[in-house]
Write a structure and sequence with these properties.
By secondary structure, the protein is an alpha+beta fold. The chain has nine helices and 13 strands.
Length: 368
């Protein structure tokens, strides 16, 4: 239907743009005003109605193209509806995913000194343990991605609360304090009451991969009701390669701001400066893709199943899937953990139903 409207609008515009068309119409209207009668009045009214109809049709026909231009240009920011997250268009491109041998050596050495979080002494890891912990960042490989959109911020408590309010979504109670093996699980903790005060602009925590999937399904249903989406819908979790590509934003350094670990406090929330809790999104600087908190504050779920090596990883930006019972990858580091884990290549993994106080998520969107 829109295609037919476009043809009509284009044809009408061509007629109007022919040499002399406007002059003829003006002459006719002037002549009719001087010699007005009932027939000419009706014809003039019909002519105005037809012109108005074609102008309206032309506007409708051109609307999708204009919308695509507005949301599809790299760097553009958009929001599909008042309750959905603010999204940034990420440009298509290629990058090298993973870390070099020298970076892994640096990470293991710094991990030995700094640890992960507030581990008990019996859980301190050896240099060999830490070398194994970062071995999954290899082999380095080139990934090429098409343009997509990614949440400018982590999903906030306010945004998640709207989802819960509209759907009545219920998640099982209980949330771990952190991701360490000795972490206690608080039976009364939840995204509403994680154990410390949060503002509505803090990232939502104590949410599982399954909870994040429920949230993106809700976003897609909202788009379908508005007529802006079909099928499964464009909203989803980012793939692991999309996440790293967006986090690096064109850099090849350890951190998105460079190799200087001493600059971490100025760019991200970690154990060093968080005061033992999350902080409102967007307080630290954005990276070159205008994305906030890609490092620190909370770990972020991705779509992918975890593998101990990138040997069989997709090279086209798609997710690595291995069925419904795999561990899911999370990225980014958090307020609880040491600065060496804020590196763009750092990987973690957890069961899909796992919840803790250091884990949140941001959404991605497939673009036309």
């Amino acid at each position: 239907m829109r295609g037919l409207m476009t043809v009509w609008a284009t044809s009408f515009q061509k007629i109007l743009h022919r040499p002399g068309t406007i002059l003829i119409l003006l002459h006719l209207m002037s002549d009719w005003q001087m010699n007005l009668n009932l027939t000419r009045s009706i014809l003039a009214l019909l002519l105005l109605c037809v012109a108005g109809m074609f102008a309206f049709v032309g506007a409708l026909a051109n609307e999708p193209a204009a919308q695509k231009t507005a949301t599809g240009k790299p760097g553009n920011v958009f929001r599909d509806c008042p309750d959905s997250p603010e999204m940034v268009v990420i440009p298509a491109g290629s990058f090298t995913m993973g870390s070099s041998a020298s970076e892994k050596t640096w990470a293991a050495t710094h991990g030995l000194d700094a640890g992960f979080g507030e581990e008990a002494p019996q859980h301190k890891l050896s240099l060999q343990d830490l070398a194994l912990a970062v071995a999954d960042e290899a082999p380095q490989h080139k990934v090429s991605l098409r343009s997509f959109a990614l949440g400018k911020y982590d999903v906030t408590r306010r945004e998640y609360a709207v989802f819960v309010s509209e759907t009545g979504y219920h998640s099982d109670p209980g949330c771990y304090d952190n991701g360490n093996p000795n972490s206690p699980k608080r039976a009364d903790a939840s995204w509403k009451n994680p154990g410390f005060q949060q503002t509505d602009n803090d990232p939502v925590i104590c949410v599982s991969w399954d909870d994040a999937q429920a949230y993106v399904s809700w976003l897609n249903r909202k788009l379908q009701r508005s007529g802006s989406a079909s099928g499964d819908g464009p909203y989803r979790l980012p793939t692991e390669s999309e996440w790293e590509y967006a986090a690096r934003a064109g850099t090849t350094t350890r951190f998105w701001w460079g190799d200087d670990e001493s600059a971490c406090a100025a760019h991200a929330w970690s154990k060093e400066n968080s005061g033992g809790q999350t902080h409102p999104v967007g307080l630290k600087p954005a990276n070159r893709f205008d994305l906030y908190d890609m490092a620190g504050n909370v770990w972020q779920w991705t779509q992918d199943c975890y593998a101990e090596t990138y040997a069989a990883a997709p090279n086209n930006g798609t997710a690595a899937e291995m069925g419904n019972h795999c561990l899911r990858v999370d990225r980014g580091g958090s307020w609880y953990y040491a600065t060496w884990l804020l590196r763009s290549a750092t990987r973690e993994r957890n069961p899909a139903d796992y919840r803790d106080k250091v884990m949140g998520f941001r959404v991605a969107k497939t673009l036309p």
